[in-house]
Design brief:
Blueprint (H helix, E strand, L loop, with lengths): L1 E5 L7 E7 L7 H6 L9 E4 L4 E6 L4 H16 L5 E5 L4 H11 L17 E5 L5 H25 L7 H14 L3 E5 L1 H6 L3 H7 L7 E7 L7 E13 L8 H4 L7 H16 L3 E12 L11 E3 L5 E3 L7 H15 L5 E6 L3 H7 L3 E5 L3 H14 L2 E4 L4 H5 L8 E2 L8 H10 L10 E5 L5 E2 L9 E2 L4 H12 L1
Parallel strand pairs: 1-6, 2-4, 2-5, 5-6, 9-10, 9-13, 12-16, 13-17, 14-15
Antiparallel strand pairs: 3-4, 7-8, 8-10, 11-12, 14-17, 18-19
Helix pairs in contact: 2-3, 3-4, 4-9, 5-9, 7-10, 9-15, 10-14, 12-15
Bound molecules: ligand BES and zinc ion (2 copies).
The site of ligand BES has 16 residues, from α11.
């Protein structure tokens, strides 16, 4: 799909017309006979009139994104070559609908079913400098989301820690970022034994990725992003039941989101310094696997009693958070992204991310940015009683709680242990376990990865630079 911005009433094969629910004005008789009610996600193509009618029930941004996605999906069923739309809705929202709704993952289809590229024209009254900028930046953001979707959808045998590191190197070259890759020897040297333990039984060696973006002008803020990059989570010796193991290629979603954000940051021209740190690891079984009952010593010296090898993400993140705080001084914000707990999905549903941290104001800022960008998020407040449930009899902390309740929060509180005092109020943990991977298509997300975390974070960055 080629998306264009124009002021001309261009002649295209089809005109897309958004129709408010029950407010059908044109072709009334015909549309009525086709039982078109202009409901959400409803579309009718009247080829003779050269019109594609798409319904919407509310006027909020996300409803419009879904309507536009419905339009492009309808067009993708045909061989129609061009279409246009004239609308007063926000340009960024229209771009999202087209670019995110058009996404397909065909890497593993043996028959090439891709149709000819369609030319789509968004007609606006005038194109000022701002309009052009919004258009281009939103396309960059959507491209990043789609790239992240590709990473996550790729099968675990084709995307392992080394692949992730290579993708980071590629991004660093394209976007002129600094890129440092730490192999297992380097991780050992840095005493990152919790992270190393998780990857020990895998034939794929663990990697830590560290990307850095520094703006040309003096940075107003310094931000660190840390991502869980479990390229596969079998559960380890605390093996997952088969039904729960499928889709665990998506356990690299946090790390992949960080890659996507780093890929876009330079294109947005924001005066912030951003570090992207990813723990790329595969959690497998084998004679060399780490075990329940093992005691691991994290980078900061914390001793961790392993009681479940499936609570591996927090072990990888613990070391990565320590690394981040040791390597980057005077941090303004530190955000981590992880498909950390099934409990978060149970608690808030599969569409919503859980936002946690010690600083309520900051938590709500991130929630607001998520909603502004089209992502769903909600806060999950910490409390000292749940913190106590992580106590270990023989080590400093357990990697699982002694209660089965509040699992998303106890996982967040485990991470909190590794946040230095000076950063306690600057840290936010984002559990994307629900929205990261879509089993049954919703909104403008087809089956597979959604790219959760990318848009909310870029919106958060923008809000910091306002
Ligand atoms: N990667 C999983 C969490 C997950 C579950 C992500 C479902 C996406 C969808 C994580 O490593 C895990 O297995 N967590 C355990 C923690 C438990 C052992 C305390 C879980 O949620 O069951
Ligand atoms: Zn796990
Ligand atoms: Zn996991």
């Amino acid at each position: 799909m080629n998306l264009n911005l124009t002021t001309k009433e261009i002649q295209t094969d089809i005109q897309i017309v958004l129709v408010k629910h029950k407010f059908i004005k044109e072709n009334k008789k015909l549309l009525k006979s086709l039982n078109f009610k202009a409901s959400n996600e409803e579309a009718v193509l009247l080829i003779e009139s050269k019109k594609l009618y798409v319904g919407f029930e509310d006027e909020d941004d996300d409803t419009i994104r879904v309507a536009i996605a419905t339009a492009i999906k309808e067009l993708n069923k045909t061989n129609i070559k061009s279409a246009s739309i004239k609308t007063d809705f926000k340009l960024s929202v229209i771009v999202d609908g087209f670019e995110l709704g058009n996404y397909q993952f065909n890497k593993y289809k043996s028959k090439d079913e891709t149709k000819d590229e369609k030319d789509i024209y968004i007609i606006v009254d005038k194109i000022g400098k701002d309009t052009q900028k919004i258009f281009e930046q939103q396309i960059s953001i959507c491209n990043a989301v789609n790239k992240v979707r590709d990473f996550i959808n790729t099968a675990p045998d084709d995307f392992y820690p080394d692949t992730m590191a290579n993708e980071a190197i590629k991004i660093s070259k394209e976007s002129k970022l600094k890129c440092k890759i730490l192999d297992e020897d380097a991780l050992e040297e840095k005493s990152m034994n919790a992270m190393l333990a998780v990857g020990r039984a895998s034939r794929h060696k663990s990697k830590l990725i560290h990307l850095t973006y520094k703006p040309k002008k003096k940075a107003k803020k310094k931000i660190v992003l840390v991502g869980k990059g479990l390229t596969y989570d079998s559960g380890g010796l605390s093996l997952k039941p088969s039904d729960f193991m499928t889709t665990m290629k998506s356990d690299k979603s946090g790390g992949s989101a960080v890659l996507g954000i780093m890929d876009t940051i330079a294109k947005l021209n924001l005066s912030i310094e951003v570090h992207g740190i990813i723990g790329a690891v595969e959690n497998m079984i084998g004679g060399d696997a780490y075990k329940p009952d093992d005691i691991l010593v994290a980078k900061d010296g914390t001793t961790i009693e392993v009681r479940n090898t499936d609570a591996e993400g927090r072990l990888v993140l613990a070391d990565c958070l320590c690394y981040a705080q040791d390597e980057v001084k005077d941090i303004d914000y530190i955000l981590d992204f992880a498909t950390l707990t099934g409990a978060c999905v149970v608690g808030v549903g599969q569409y919503t991310s859980g936002i946690m941290g010690n600083n309520n104001i900051l938590n709500y800022q991130v929630v607001q940015s998520a909603w502004d960008s089209g992502e769903l998020a909600t806060t999950l407040p910490f409390n000292r009683y749940l913190k106590k449930t992580l106590k270990s009899e023989i080590a400093d902390i357990c990697n699982i709680s002694n209660t089965r309740y509040g699992g998303a929060i106890t996982a967040g509180l485990f991470l909190e242990h590794f946040i230095k005092d000076e950063n306690k109020q600057k840290w936010v943990h984002i559990d994307i376990a629900g929205p990261a991977f879509v089993e049954h298509s919703w909104g403008y997300n087809p089956h597979g990865a959604s790219g959760a975390g990318v848009r909310m974070t870029l919106e958060f960055f923008r809000s910091l630079c306002k």
